[in-house]
Amino acid sequence: MSLEALIAILGMAAVTFAIRAGGLLLANRLPTTGFVASWMKHVPGAVLAALVAPAILAGGAAEGIAAAVTALVYLVSRNLFAAMLSGVLAVYLARLALGA
Amino acid sequence: MHAPAPHSGPAQFWLGVRMFLPVAVSIAAYGVVWGVLAGQAGLSVLEVALMSGLVFAGASQFVALDMWTPGNLPVLSIVIAAGIVNLRMLLMSATLRPLVGHLSLPRQLGAMFFVSDEQWAMTMAEVRKGTGSVAFLIGTGVLSWFAWMSSTLCGRVLGAFIDDPTRYGLDFAFTATFLALLLGMWRGRGDLVPWIIGALAAILTSKLIEGNWYIIVGGLVGSFAGALAETIRERRHVA
Questions:
Q1: What pLDDT score does B1 carry?
Q2: What is the pLDDT of residue B166?
């Protein structure tokens, strides 16, 4: 394992534990409702949207079709694994069909 | 011979384990997916074990994989992104203070290590019924940790049998997984604004700034917009 990987992992662990511990220690001063609380609550969804959108945009038609298939399978099955597999299969077939 | 009293420590611990079992199965399914993707991103088995064991926070670990480029790791942005994605835990552990407040500080902090979305939600539901306890919190946490640790390692080992990911379209597994994770987070129309603004901000940033900063910028701007929209809606509701 490289040193930079070790530092990245330990850094992630330290930051995450600091947040878990910090919430407990600052419990009386943290807002549980209102603007700041609502901001923190929306972060994970916004981060995932920020991850997905540029990736889909950067892809071609095959990736666009596969994204639609993934979304459809997830909404019907509610199963992450099934959605991932169908997305991969769809992109494989679409690339073959489109010659990409 | 008496069975342990229902409010004793060991009984509460095992009640937590039993009640959490179905959730642990679904955590393990996510864990296998993460492990496979971790192998593709170039994490070794040891790195997977360290990250799952010490960070123990699924969403931030998924984001880290997307930024993972061995040989030239953007260490700072990986750590900042983990902090931003996990910021919500600040509110979760804050609400656990009444439950653990009577313990010594090292024990309180030890209990906080396990705080995660599903485990916190189930413990709080018990607390609202008036039956939650520290032992219950630890029971669900320990099971959750073992489920995450073993399933991510499993996925990493299984994924090693796939040789050339792009040939089978497996490079798309990242996007597909993130898209499905995102859809799973849908709680109602209030999510529309942060998602759309987050996506647009990320697209714009990725065109303007080198590197992975678009993830952090999109996440912060999108969630800010979501909170703004929510606050405006509530004001109107009151007025």
A1: 45
A2: 65
